[in-house]
Design a protein that fits this description.
Helices cover 28% and strands 31% of the residues. With 631 residues, it is α+β, with helices and mostly antiparallel strands. The protein has five domains: 196 residues, P-loop containing nucleotide triphosphate hydrolases (Rossmann fold, 3-Layer(aba) Sandwich); 85 residues, Translation factors (Elongation Factor Tu (Ef-tu), domain 3, Beta Barrel), CATH 2.40.30.10; 71 residues, Elongation Factor G (Translational Gtpase), domain 3 (Alpha-Beta Plaits, 2-Layer Sandwich); 106 residues, Alpha-Beta Plaits; 127 residues, Alpha-Beta Plaits (2-Layer Sandwich). The strands form five sheets. Strands 10-9-14-7-8-13-11-12 form an eight-stranded antiparallel β-sheet. It has a six-stranded mixed β-sheet with strand order 2-3-1-4-5-6, sandwiched between helices. A hairpin with a 3-residue loop joins strand 11 and strand 12.
Length: 631
């Protein structure tokens, strides 16, 4: 019913691990902007782990980019004390380990790792908006992990709130009574105490063997410039103590445990972590590859026989090239990606070279927001200036001789006779008010979508399920969906395999020479539109030469679109102020011959700004586009 007095002080002198029956590990899952971080703020205040003078909104969102955009990107773990008075009047002190998770579909991997470290989940739904697509996705993740789900309606203080209506929806979804859905307001704090009591009552205590060899799962890591790798763990069996030697079971690396503690919400060193506890380890290691998310930590002198089941590696959905604008920044970009990989386990990258852009990396992302956030973090945290090429997906190409080629970059697309091209497809779930069904169907059909089914959650809200090619939704599908539904629709998607498709590679030729960097793999029906768009764009971006330059879009040897950059011409007739027409014609013919000779030996120099503007994804391309036009 109340926080334990002097929480910070009591945690600093806590001599040993808390008994497992007094622990409750839970996370908060919800759709984006349903109030997870605000509810977490109220919990921190109520339990007393953050003093009033140190309190700020979105306390657990540590990155500037999270605070500016109002979204959670990284899961944050925090330990809170909470005392509950029983029916007999006795007060029991519990320790609550809470993990605040992201809400966007691109960060589902963060959510899945958080769920593996918990026994319970608070399913948060906005009482003014109701269930959204990501709410369903996160709920299914929680049920797969056998977690105790506590349904909660947030923002009940809003004038537009309809708690009764959405409590019915929630109860129907998870199978329960509408009265069991707690009503809270993260803003005012109403109902939060009752929620903390409900967590203590319903979430099961962690189970583990206290005297077995230590086993702790790494669920997150960060890199600290001064202290090296800081590893976040959930202890499953045994205990970990400071100054003992620990071993990473996948890499076999051993280290001395310099510091161990809990996050409350700042790091607080303790004398060890026991069964079910969530905390951090510092070994002083600076090599970022030594601490892999999903690895098992054990005692080096008395190791465990078997490692814990790790997380399934996330599969990148979207690929994009990241290149430093200044080529000398390449080593700095490599180090930055190494450090960011530690903080973001879903990041995959490998070196790549582009004729146009030099040395860089082919990076795999979970979605467009993930791409945007990673690029912005690299630029802010590591002071880099980067170009990101237009995003694309993986294709599997089978040639006539049944040779299979995996294509992650359009320049890798094989020539010759092709038997089949397979592209990744996703199952998309769209939740929308029923009045927008027609416009959503039109959008999905224009993106080669197949309707799988449609269910009415209530009279006004409908769930639509589509199979869509991933390549069709990685660009502007989400923006189009929001604009067609006035912002009311929500989208969630998951990969479901691949399908055969009529895809072609469109090449861009400058004066008959192919420029690999501008190639793209598109559906045959959209090839002409892409060719015209790129040719028109390049005509505006490439400066005029001394000779005429044709820009062509071609599929194989067949040209499908063309634009021409007119030659810069000297006015050779300026000195002819009279005389016969043959004299003027002679001068023009002489100039024409010179231009023809120049064209055979001349080559088109494409400025870096034109490459940046034409290749950049829309987020970063606009600025480069303006710069190129100025020059």
């Amino acid at each position: 019913m109340s926080p334990i007095p002097s929480a910070a002080a009591s945690s600093r002198i806590r001599p040993a691990a808390t008994a497992p029956e007094l622990l409750r590990n839970f996370c908060i899952i919800a759709h984006i902007d349903h109030g997870k971080s605000t509810l977490a703020d109220r919990m921190l205040q109520l339990t007393g782990v953050v003093e009033a003078r140190a309190m700020r909104a979105q306390y657990l969102d540590r990155m500037d980019i999270e605070r500016e955009r109002g979204i959670t990107i990284k899961s944050q773990a925090v330990r809170m004390p909470w005392a509950v008075t029983g029916d007999d009047g006795a007060t029991t002190a519990y320790a609550l380990n809470m993990i605040d998770t992201p809400g966007h579909v691109d960060f589902t991997y963060e959510v899945s790792r958080s769920l593996a470290a918990c026994e319970g989940a608070v399913l948060l739904v906005d009482a003014a908006q109701g269930i959204e697509a990501q709410t369903l996705a996160n709920l299914y993740l929680a049920l797969e992990n056998d977690l105790q789900v506590i349904p909660v309606l947030n923002k009940i203080d809003l004038p537009a709130a309809q708690p009764e209506k959405y409590a019915e929806e929630l109860a129907t979804l998870i199978g329960g009574d509408p009265a069991d859905c707690l009503r809270v307001s993260g803003k005012t704090g109403e109902g939060v105490e009752a929620l903390l009591d409900r967590i203590v009552e319903l979430v099961p205590a962690p189970v583990g063997v206290a005297d077995a060899p230590a086993r702790a799962m790494i669920f997150d890591s960060v890199y600290d410039t001064y202290r090296g790798v800081v590893t976040y763990v959930r202890v499953v069996d045994g205990s970990l103590n400071p100054r003992e030697r620990i071993s990473m079971m996948s890499t076999r690396a051993t280290h001395e445990l310099l510091e161990i503690g809990v996050i409350s919400p700042e790091p607080v060193p303790t004398q060890g972590l026991g069964v079910g506890e969530v905390g951090y380890l510092i070994t002083g290691v600076k090599d970022v590859r030594q601490s892999k998310v999903g690895d098992t930590v054990t005692n080096a002198s008395k190791p465990a026989a078997a490692a814990l089941g790790g997380y399934s590696d996330p599969k990148p959905m979207v690929f994009s090239g990241l290149y430093p604008i200044d080529g000398s920044d390449y080593p700095a970009l490599r180090d930055a990606l190494d450090k960011l990989k530690l903080n973001d386990a879903a990041l995959n990258y490998e070196p790549e070279t582009s004729v146009a852009l030099g040395f860089g990396f082919r990076v795999g992302f979970l979605g467009l927001l993930h791409l945007e956030i990673v690029r912005e973090r690299l630029e802010r945290e590591f002071d880099l200036d980067l170009i990101s090429t237009a995003p694309n997906v993986i294709y599997d190409v089978t040639l006539e001789d049944r040779t299979e080629v995996r294509v992650t970059n359009p320049s890798e697309f094989p020539g010759g006779k092709i038997r089949e091209v397979r592209e990744p497809v996703v199952k998309a779930t769209i939740l929308t008010p029923s009045e927008f069904i027609g416009s959503i169907m039109e959008l999905c059909q224009s993106r080669r979508g197949d309707l799988l089914g449609m269910d009415y959650l209530s009279e006004e809200r409908v769930e639509m399920r589509y199979t869509l090619p991933l390549a069709e939704i990685v660009f502007d599908f989400f923006d189009q969906l929001k604009s067609r539904t006035r912002g009311y629709a929500s989208l969630d998607y998951e990969p479901t395999g691949d399908q055969s498709a009529d895809l072609v590679k469109v090449d861009i030729l400058l004066q008959g020479e192919q420029v690999d960097a501008f190639s793209a793999i598109v559906h045959k029906d959209k090839a002409y539109a892409y060719g015209v768009m790129m040719a028109t764009k390049l005509k505006d971006l490439i400066p005029r030469q001394q000779f005429e330059v044709p820009i062509q879009a071609a599929i194989g040897s067949r040209v499908i679109a063309r634009e021409t950059i007119r030659a810069m011409r000297k006015d050779v007739l300026a000195k002819c102020y009279g005389g016969d027409i043959t004299r003027k014609r002679k001068l023009l013919e002489k100039q024409k011959e010179g231009k023809k000779r120049m064209k055979t030996i001349g080559r088109v120099d494409v400025p870096q700004e034109a490459f940046i503007a034409a290749l950049s994804s829309d987020q970063g391309g606009a600025k480069a586009d303006k710069d190129a036009k100025k020059k």
